[in-house]
Amino acid sequence: MKVIIRTDASIEIGSGHVMRCLTVAKNLRLNECEVIFWMQDLPGNLIDYVNSEGFRNIFEAEQADLYIIDHYGIDKEWESEIRVFTKKIAVIDDLANRKHDCELLLDQNALPYFESRYDGLVSDTCVKLLGPKYLIMRDEFIDARRLLRKRQEKIENLLVFMGGSDPTNETMKILEALEDFQFKHVDVVVGNGNVFKEQIREVCEERGYYYHCQINYMAELMQQADFAIGAGGSTTWERCYVGLPSSSTIVAENQILTTKYAEDQGAIVNLGWHEHVTVNTYKKLLGKLKIEGLSVSGLKITQNKLPNSWVYKILELIK
C-alpha cells in the first residue's frame, strides 16, 4: 500500500508536524506500507533529515492508496482537489478551525470538550480519533513510560528544549537566566531549523552544558532530567507522558488552549505568551522550582491502554 504524507517544516512553521508524521510513517512502514513524504523546500526544512530516516520526498502529487495531511495551510478545498490522486484521505489537526474532506481525522490533544470540536467540520461518516487516547508517540517514549522513575525534589538535572526552530529565541533567554544558577547537569536541545543554534552551541561549550542538535533520543534525556523548560505544543504531551515535570512557554497561538488545559489539570507550569516571558520570568522559575504533583498529573492526563492505537484505524482505511 502506498501512502503519501503532505506536511512541511520551516523556520516559521517549526518541526513538530514533520516529527510526528515521521512517527506515523515508521508505524505504517512496519505494517508493510510504502510511505513517501511531500514537503516543500522551505528555509529550515527537514527534507534531508526525513531522507536519512529512510523516506524519500516528492514535490508534486502522485497516485497513492492514502494521503495523510498534517498542515495548517490545507483545508477542504485542497483535499477535495487531491482526490483525483487518491481514494482515501486522513487528516492530522489540532486547530479545529476549518472544514476537511477526509475519511479520518486525528487530533491527539487534551482539551475541554475535545469530543465535539470537529462537529460540523467533517462529514458524519468521518472516523474521528480525538484526545490523548490517540497520542502519536515514538517508541522511545513508550519504552520510557514503562521505565518510569520517581523524580527527586532536589532538581539537579535540567533539560531545555523550546522546539525545533524556536522562532522566538526562548533558548537564549533561558541561557541568560541560567547565568545566576548552578545545576549538576544541563541538556540544551535545538533543531536544525534554529537560526541561533551556533550561538547556543558556543554558550553551552563555554559553560559546560550538553548541547544536542536534531536528536532522536529525546526520551532518554527526559528520563534523566528532573525538570524541563519547554514550549507548548506536542512536546508538552511527551514530557507529561514520561512523567517529567516541566514549564511551558506558549510560542504559537495553536498552543494556547492546550497549554491552559494542561495547567488547569496540574500537569505543567504555564509561563504564558512568549512576548510576556522575559529573562526575569525564567529567573523567577529557576529560583523556585517545585515539582510536587506535576509528574502524577502529567501521567494521568496522557494515560492510554494501547499506545499508538491510531495506526490500526489508519490501516483499516486501506486494507
Q: Helix and strand layout, with pairings?
A:
Elements: E1 2-7, H1 16-30, E2 34-38, H2 47-52, E3 57-58, E4 66-70, H3 76-81, E5 88-92, E6 104-107, E7 127-130, H4 139-146, E8 157-161, H5 170-178, E9 185-190, H6 197-207, E10 210-213, H7 218-224, E11 227-231, H8 234-241, E12 246-250, H9 256-264, E13 269-273, H10 279-287, H11 294-301, H12 310-318
Parallel strand pairs: 1-2, 1-4, 2-3, 4-5, 5-6, 6-7, 8-9, 8-11, 9-10, 11-12, 12-13
Structure notes:
This protein has 319 residues and is an alpha/beta fold. The chain has twelve helices and 13 strands. It folds into two domains: 2-135 and 306-318, Rossmann fold (3-Layer(aba) Sandwich); 140-301, 3-Layer(aba) Sandwich (Rossmann fold). It has helices at 16-30, 47-52, 76-81, 139-146, 170-178, 197-207, 218-224, 234-241, 256-264, 279-287, 294-301, 310-318, and strands spanning 2-7, 34-38, 57-58, 66-70, 88-92, 104-107, 127-130, 157-161, 185-190, 210-213, 227-231, 246-250, 269-273. A seven-stranded parallel beta sheet has the order 3-2-1-4-5-6-7. It has a six-stranded parallel beta sheet with strand order 10-9-8-11-12-13, with helices on both faces. Helix 5 packs across helix 10 and helix 8 (234-241) crosses helix 11 (294-301). The relative contact order is 0.14.
**CATH class wording of the largest domain:** Alpha Beta
Mean pLDDT comes to 95
Count of separate DSSP helical elements: 12
Query: What are the secondary-structure elements, in order, as H or E?
Result: EHEHEEHEEEHEHEHEHEHEHEHHH
Apparent shape: globular
Q: Tell me about the biggest sheet? A: 7 strands, parallel
Distance linking N and C termini? 8 Å
Instruction: Look up the CATH topology of the largest domain.
Output: Rossmann fold
Low-confidence stretches: none
Please state the CA-atom Rg, rounded to the nearest Å.
Answer: 19 Å
Strand order of the largest sheet: 3-2-1-4-5-6-7
| CATH-level-2 architecture of the largest domain | 3-Layer(aba) Sandwich
Structural class: alpha/beta
Helix content: 25-40%
CATH superfamily of the largest domain: Glycogen Phosphorylase B
Number of strands: 13
Strand content: 15-25%
How many discrete domains?
Answer: 2
- Oligomeric state of the chains in view: single chain
